[in-house]
Design a protein that fits this description.
alpha/beta; binds SN-glycerol-1-phosphate; globular; TIM Barrel
């Protein structure tokens, strides 16, 4: 059986009231050389997790990029797949996403059923994740590709009850996402309400552009912050984001 080492590390972070930083690498936007450069920057900044994936993934160098990253860092590589075709046995773990904010049965369970043998055979650590997409001010790839409405940005109560239902259904993580490159990241008030009403770790991403927002999200109760786009534009931000997120030691 695969280990649960990475999930255990997330629980340990939460128990010790520390916050985690996940850098999202989209294989459609890099090559192996860039992957290595990012891995080294992540090492320097003491990044906690490398998330790997994208909603589209039109490139076919996933295994190659993950192997390049793994050769240059011990930071766990966690797949964040947009579809079952993105599963790579070279990563360490898989966010096994079920789109609980949507009403598209394919994203809730359909794709999981058809890919279950492949996922099991991968040997990856599987982390059951309730995935909640929140309106980020403009259609994002995930909202379009999933064919599902996002939760309105000002309906924190809907996000809260969705996360509660996800936890009671047995999801080990809740991931609230405004979508890659969202115009508006998720508000601190929504994060706070959701965090107060679940016990499993809360991952938050989408449209976070500056260290202040990452810090405030952690103060509001996010356990792991995911950043992709902002780092693609300026990879010096990795260090600044890491410093801001790791400076938050006490959950409110
Ligand atoms: C997207 O949450 C991730 O699914 C990260 O979003 O690329 O906007 O940082 P950004």
């Amino acid at each position: 059986m695969p280990s649960n080492a990475i999930y255990t590390s997330i629980l340990q972070l939460k128990q010790s009231q520390q916050k985690g930083f996940a850098v999202l690498i989209d294989p459609d936007k890099i090559n192996s050389a860039k992957a290595i450069q990012l891995a080294n920057l992540c090492n320097d900044a003491k990044v906690d997790y490398i998330f790997f994936g994208g909603s589209l993934m039109v490139s076919n160098h996933v295994d190659e990029c993950i192997k390049a990253i793994k050769n240059h860092t011990n930071i766990p590589v966690v797949l964040f797949p947009g579809s079952p075709s993105q599963v790579s046995c070279f990563a360490d773990a898989l966010l096994y996403l079920s789109l609980i904010s949507g009403r598209n049965a394919e994203m809730l369970i359909g794709q999981h059923v058809t890919s279950a043998p492949l996922v099991r055979a991968s040997g990856l650590e599987i982390m059951s994740t309730g995935y909640i997409v929140v309106d980020g001010g403009a259609p994002t790839t995930v909202s379009y590709m999933s064919g599902s409405a996002s939760i309105p940005a000002d309906k924190a109560d809907i996000a809260m009850v969705t996360a509660m239902a996800g936890e009671m259904l047995g999801k080990k993580l809740i991931y609230m996402d405004a979508g890659s490159g969202a115009k508006q990241p998720i508000s601190e008030s929504m994060i706070q309400l959701v965090a107060k009403n679940i016990t499993v770790p809360l991952i938050v991403g989408g449209g976070i552009k500056d260290p202040e927002k990452a810090y405030l999200n952690c103060k509001a109760g996010a356990d792991i912050i995911v950043i992709g786009n902002a780092i693609e534009k300026d990879d010096n931000l990795i260090k600044e984001m890491a410093n801001a997120i790791h400076a938050v030691k006490v959950a409110i």
